[in-house]
Design a protein that fits this description.
The complex is a heterodimer of chains A (134) and B (225).
Chain A: H1 2-17, H2 22-44, H3 51-70, H4 80-104
Chain B: H1 2-9, H2 29-64, H3 66-75, H4 78-103, H5 107-138, H6 153-189, H7 199-223
Helix pairs in contact in B: 2-3, 2-6, 2-7, 3-6, 4-5, 4-7, 5-6, 6-7
């Protein structure tokens, strides 16, 4: 009986903790604003090879904050996490395979406009111009 | 008969059998809410994969035309893009607060917060409209219609093809999100959504957060190449 009560209480606590408090939302919002400001600063600096990776890193942090706290994934024990994980895994697979293919594939086709020398084949007799055996 | 049984046992009327919002195949409102939430998440997962394919094509085209993409990206209005990011982030924040206050049964706060979020969402669409108009006028168009000065046709047209596909699809999602928020607000207004049944607000909220989440990634990809 007491065991049953405990689980019920625990379950109730779990669903409570998966939903944030206004203070938590305010903190996340301020962090998101800071992230946006940082991205804007990066954009104003002279742009180089690292501009986009840094901006995407900030975006990933911001996206994680939104998913964890605004979408209540933090402390959530259910299946939604699995859905997100599946989507992210498929996306990473897609990008990795695509980029690997793009950078490491050797040219499989003849470029347009290039004439390849085609060797002339001499067919053996009785199809070609060979001399028949005696 | 079922209602009598519930009345006789004296419990379960709160969230169990007999609740007007409970479908017969669920044993309690909590179970139903879990199933509904999971369903919404599966939908959001497939939505994000729809965008993932566009992100992948963007990545491939950018890889092939890096310098043209950088030039074309500088043509976009960074200030407006940043302001739009702030709008969506803040509207996501107010929607998160609305999902908190619906659990506290604070109807007035929920309606105000949803209205503020919707105003920011409409602001986003209006600003995007101004950006698009400027793009159209300057010839920053997709595919063979592209004729923007100072940006090579090869690559530049691909950037704007990706740009219009991504922002167009995202804009459509903002509009759908606005419709969902209106629906949730009407449900709250007519007391068909409250602390004991907050699903409409939660669904609309989750969808709105996804719209925000996608924009968080679009912002650097389009404005910061």
């Amino acid at each position: 009986m007491s065991n049953h009560d405990q689980t019920a209480e625990h379950g109730g606590h779990g669903s409570e903790s998966s939903h944030g408090s206004p203070l938590q939302y305010v903190i996340v919002w301020v962090l998101l604003l800071i992230g946006t400001f940082l991205t804007f600063t990066v954009a104003e600096l002279p742009r180089g090879e690292w501009t986009l990776p840094i901006a995407l890193l900030i975006a990933t942090c911001k996206g994680t904050l939104v998913a964890l706290f605004f979408m209540h994934l933090y402390g959530d024990k259910g299946l939604p996490k699995m859905v997100l994980l599946t989507a992210v895994t498929l996306f990473v697979l897609l990008i990795t395979l695509l980029m690997t293919d793009l950078h490491f594939r050797f040219p499989l086709v003849t470029p347009r406009g290039v004439e390849l020398p085609i060797p002339q084949r001499v067919l053996p007799p009785p199809f070609g111009p060979g001399t028949p055996e005696k | 008969m079922a209602a009598e049984a519930v009345a006789a046992t004296g419990h379960g009327a709160e969230t169990g059998p007999g609740h007007p919002k409970l479908a017969h195949h669920y044993e309690s409102l909590e179970r139903q809410a879990h199933a509904n939430r999971f369903g919404v998440w599966v939908f959001l997962g497939s939505e994000s994969l729809l965008f993932a394919v566009l992100f992948a094509s963007y990545a491939q085209y950018r890889d092939i035309n890096a310098s043209a993409f950088a030039l074309a990206s500088r043509h976009l209005n960074l200030l407006l893009g940043t302001f739009n990011t702030l709008l969506l982030i803040s509207s996501s924040f107010t929607v998160a607060l609305a999902t908190y206050y619906i659990k506290k049964n604070n109807k007035k706060a929920v309606l105000t917060l949803i209205a503020v979020s919707m105003l920011m969402g409409i602001g986003f669409i209006v600003i995007k409209g101004f950006e698009w108009t400027a793009d159209f006028n300057e010839g920053a168009l997709p595919g063979r219609f592209f004729h923007l000065e100072g940006v090579p046709f090869q690559g530049g047209n691909l950037f704007f093809t990706c740009y219009f596909l991504l922002t167009g699809l995202h804009g459509a999602h903002v509009v759908i999100g606005l419709v969902l928020l209106t629906w949730a607000a009407l449900r709250v207004q007519h007391n068909t959504a409250s602390a004991s049944y907050d699903l409409p607000v939660e669904i609309a909220g989750l969808y709105w957060h996804l719209v925000d989440l996608i924009w968080i990634f679009l912002y650097p990809l389009l404005y910061l190449v």
